[in-house]
Write a structure and sequence with these properties.
heterodimer, A: 177 residues, alpha+beta, Alpha-Beta Plaits, 4-stranded antiparallel beta sheet, 5 helices, 14% strand, rod-shaped, B: 395 residues, mainly alpha, globular
């Protein structure tokens, strides 16, 4: 099924913000905004959901914690008991303190890397992936609002276009995808 | 808006104080024949004087930190922070009182290095006596308390002046004084905890002790700030404070809990790993006599904030923040209790009527003083340069 997409370009983030407010107030669903930098306060206007990255970070952290504990127990206690400084070498619990720093570091490592990679995948910005922004100028000094006809079935394409033109945009482009 | 102490709060603090006096009286009646009664009484005095004084000190540190870093978001709660710092003169009074009592009784079996008989028979204390002697101890104490008092007075004066005059001149003066205070505080927070707390275990030493004590202080004062802000907001006194301010205060509570746990662990693990007799004695004694209390206190102060305050929603939820805050605040009191009572009384220390009584008596006085301070100044700064930023604070 083809979908009609409207890209409205702005040269100022405040104008874009007001424009988005205007469109949302009229009942238009804004699919996405492209900007060279984060626009403060745009999320609640276009109704972006609260990120779930934090939950993922917690899960990755737990994985790191488990891996570090299981791994160190195997290396240092089971497979080849290490006698360091005369500490008992057949018990993980009694040596737990010595393993805490490494467990902590590994937890942080897993949480941070997992979170970064998840973020790249969710935004489709892993190296080698096709760029998502409709116009390369959105990485420099332009801002783009994306509307989809399929999400705005209340309006015809012409109505959408005229609504967008009320908002002080500088360029408009339509595409079939 | 003018703050008026609600009748409920007046009643509550009065009940706390009366209960405190009754409990303390019970405690004294039950134990005054014990051979260690004096020691126990003094130890309690020191615990509660230090604990509540240090909350005011932590708030002063936070205020200076905000000045020195030109923080914007906190402007809406600035007067709340200042009200907590207002306990400093009272705290200084209590500290001077208890330290004077201890000095006049040759250490009261708490600072054993003040007792000439003990020092004469102890080579280790003799070697330390160039630093740990009554005269030098008092010079240092007066310098710490005097410097804190002077900075507190200056910050307070300039804050009221700013409300009247405005402009940025006062702001930049605060900026300089705040940075200067941090320089003093970074040294004094360490050395004062050696003098007031670490010298109880006079044979023992730890270079991390100052930071460890300081992080506990910081955490306690952040908890007090959170709870006080929530209380005032609930009564409708802080219309400019929004969820993001509460969230930020929650983050501070969370972060300082971690800082404290991190330093507690660092000190413990290094001493455990090296396993040197003169260092492990501190923990051996505490583990033998206060195993549940000592590790329980650590677990509560670490795990509670970690699990309960981790999510964004929890840091904005007044119920969770208050409950977690009260729990970790009492656990930090236990921390100070174990530092002082376990260090001085050893196995004979226990939490009884007297401990609880004096703690709630001081808590009652502390709350009353802070509420009284709130009535003395407007609850929102008028001319703070970052006030507008703070009102629009959003995270």
């Amino acid at each position: 099924m083809t979908d009609r997409v409207i890209y409205a370009m702005y040269d100022d983030d405040d104008v874009l913000k007001d424009g988005a407010k205007h469109l949302v107030a009229k009942g238009v669903k804004v699919e996405e905004v492209f900007s060279p930098f984060p626009i403060h306060g745009i999320d609640p206007i276009i109704g972006v959901e609260q990120t779930r990255l934090g939950i993922f970070a917690f899960i990755y952290g737990l994985i790191g914690l488990t891996l570090a504990t299981v791994g160190m127990r195997f290396f240092m206690i089971v497979d080849w008991p290490m006698n360091i400084g005369g500490k008992p070498n057949f018990s993980y619990m009694e040596n737990m303190l010595a393993f805490v720093p490494i467990t902590f570091e590994f937890t942080v490592l897993c949480a941070a890397h997992g979170m970064a990679i998840t973020y790249f995948i969710a935004n489709r910005t892993l190296p080698g992936m096709k760029a998502q922004n409709p116009d390369p100028r959105t990485t420099d000094d332009r801002f783009v609002i994306e509307l989809r006809a399929s999400q705005n079935s209340k309006f015809s394409a012409a109505e959408l276009e005229s609504l967008v033109k009320e908002t002080g945009m500088v360029e408009i482009e339509q595409k079939e995808i | 808006m003018e703050f008026k102490i609600a009748n409920k709060a007046k009643r509550l603090t009065l009940i706390l104080m009366i209960m405190g006096v009754i409990f303390t009286g019970f405690g004294i009646a039950l134990t005054w024949k014990d051979h260690n009664f004096g020691q126990r009484f003094m130890a309690n005095g020191l615990i509660n004087s230090f604990f509540f004084f240090s909350i005011g000190m932590g708030a002063l540190f936070f205020l200076a930190l905000a000045y020195a870093t030109e923080t914007g978001w906190y402007a809406a709660i600035k007067k709340v922070v200042e009200a907590v710092t207002g306990f400093i003169p009272y705290g200084i009074g209590f500290m001077v009182l208890i330290l004077l009592a201890l000095t006049l009784t040759d250490g009261g079996h708490i600072y054993t290095w003040m007792d000439p008989e003990v020092v004469a028979n102890d080579e280790i204390i003799k070697a330390k006596s160039f630093y740990l002697n009554k005269g030098f101890f008092w010079i240092r104490t007066i310098v710490y308390l005097g410097v804190y008092y002077m900075f507190w007075k200056g910050f307070k004066k300039r804050s009221l002046e700013e409300d009247r005059i405005g402009g940025t001149e006062i702001h930049f003066k605060n900026y300089k004084k705040g940075a200067l205070f941090l320089v003093y505080f970074s040294v004094f927070s360490s050395t004062s905890s050696w003098d007031w707390l670490m010298s109880i275990d006079v044979h023992w030493f730890s270079t991390l002790f100052g930071w460890y004590t300081f992080s506990g202080i910081w955490c306690s004062s952040m908890v007090v700030l959170v709870i006080l802000t929530l209380y005032l907001k609930k009564l409708g006194y802080l219309p400019k404070v929004n969820d993001s301010h509460i969230h930020d205060l929650g983050k501070w509570t969370f972060a300082t809990s971690f800082l404290w746990s991190y330093l507690w662990f660092s000190q413990y693990m290094l001493i455990w790993y090296a396993n040197i007799g003169e260092e492990v004695v501190y923990y051996m004694m505490r583990i033998e006599n206060f195993k549940v209390l000592y590790f329980g206190m650590f677990v509560v102060n670490f795990v509670f904030p970690m699990l309960l305050l981790m999510s964004r929603e929890a840091k904005r939820h007044s119920g969770i923040l208050t409950i977690v805050g009260l729990i970790i605040l009492s656990s930090h009191w236990v921390d100070v209790y174990i530092m002082i009572s376990a260090g001085s009384m050893g196995a004979t220390a226990s939490i009884g009527f007297m401990e609880i009584g004096m703690a709630i008596l001081m808590a009652g006085i502390f709350i009353r003083v802070i509420l009284y301070n709130l009535t003395k100044a407007p609850l929102s700064p008028v001319n703070h340069p970052f006030l507008d930023e703070s009102i629009h604070h959003e995270i």
